[in-house]
Design goal:
heterodimer, A: alpha+beta, 4-stranded antiparallel sheet, two-stranded antiparallel sheet, 2 helices, 6 strands, flat, B: 384 residues, mainly alpha
Chain lengths: 162, 384
Amino acid sequence: MMSRTDQRLRPWSERGHAGPHRIEENLMAKYLLLKHYRGAPAPVNDVPMDRWTEEEISAHFQYMRDFAARLEGTGEFVDGQALSPEGTFVRYDGEGRPPVTDGPFAETKDLIAGWMVVDVDTYERAVELAGELSAAPGAGGEPIHEWLEVRPFLTEPPTVTE
Amino acid sequence: MTSMDEHRLRTLTPSVIGILVRRGADFAAAEDAVQEALVEAVRLWAAEPPRDPKGWLVTVAWRKFLDAARSDASRRRREELVEDQPAPGPGASVDDTLQLYFLCAHPSLTPASAVALTLRAVGGLTTRQIAQAYLVPEATMAQRISRAKRTVADVRFDQPGDVATVLRVLYLVFNEGYSGDVDLAAEAIRLTRQLAAVIDHEEVAGLLALMLLHHARRSARTRPDGSLVPLMQQDRSLWDTRLIAEGVDILQAALARDRIGEFQAQAAVAALHADARTAEETDWVQIVEWYDELVRLTDNPVVRLNRAVAVGEADGPRAGLAALAELDETLPRHVAVAAYLHERDGDVATAARLYAEAARQAPNLQERDHLTRQAARLNAGPLG
């Protein structure tokens, strides 16, 4: 039934043209902005929080709340959570046995402090937001410049695949 | 209320918004009022649907609009305005459905805002349903929609719009996949059908055909465990022949008008696949020609990548690899295509290595799993 369509292939300049629009796969994409207790390179303003003044701590958390509220206002906020640094490693230990627990391991290189999930138009926007989050104030009210890890979420496959 | 009634109810959304706007409501307030009326309709109509659903919606939405205008002191001026309007009578004879499509896909909106606004104001979905479909909190989606409404607040309602931007929005909704409670692919088809009913345009038909032809293969695309089945391995008896026949008919009628466009060309590729009773019967030569057409129309690198696959089938894997060599290696799925063509060329070791690399780069879980299985299959050797 489509075998006649090849006769219709003519130079495109002879045809009407619906205008250039890109074939795009997906819309917005979700990114994880990952904050580390350990494992990321040292921040510029590298003073631990227990050496800040109380006002500096309050200012820091206020900045984080304002940041999340602003992202909700722009329609880009998905989630934000903080994790306790104390964790336990758990593994299966065979049929009928309770799982083995171990740790915490002081020497573990990577330790996640928390995350924010954003839903944004572009990768560049995710990087821009991570940069702003990294500017949260620390000791002396100065930006911490901490390193945040930006990780794209895996998505649903697109409907149109060929 | 059955889902069929709910569909019919949602179909009325754009024209009811249009009537409120013509009576003097601004778009944002009209849209809010109609949403509230829809919610009430879902609640009340279950017991007894009204004889004139559209008239009911107009009356209730108008009352909601007046209530909102009155309760908002800062809107006092508009209240005076609306009090001067004639009492709500039967719906205006003009159908503003098309205007709603244009407004919600206005070029000043980002694609994501246009999609959200279209699903709400044209599709009649609730903010919660849209938020669930896109896996974001309801508050976030509500903000996205109200920002979108502010962006188009000064756009004149009767301003002519661009069909191409509307089609792009509908294509994005369709392509978002099958996640969530709301079936976005089915919703995109419904909205494209509704658009095709109010405007005679060959690319609207092309997009509708494209959607129907892809939707027809839906149940063959995934196994019960959710893993992907590549087109060439799909059980073609699972394809929906009714949707395929409809898609091909719509496409043929569009092509006969001889105003080719991107969506007609994409639909032609889909139709050629749908037309093959077995994978081996696929007319790859003609598919390559349609990809050539698409390259001319869009000059899109993703199209060139798909073209390389088709060339590999039409003229052999070496030709496919030669076509692939001309493309940017950082393109999404470039490595996956290279792996496939190397396997077809008999270079199993290279293919296995590239499949594993492609799996690491895959943008979604299903593709990653699929590519990992391909690597594992080749690594297990000829008996694996």
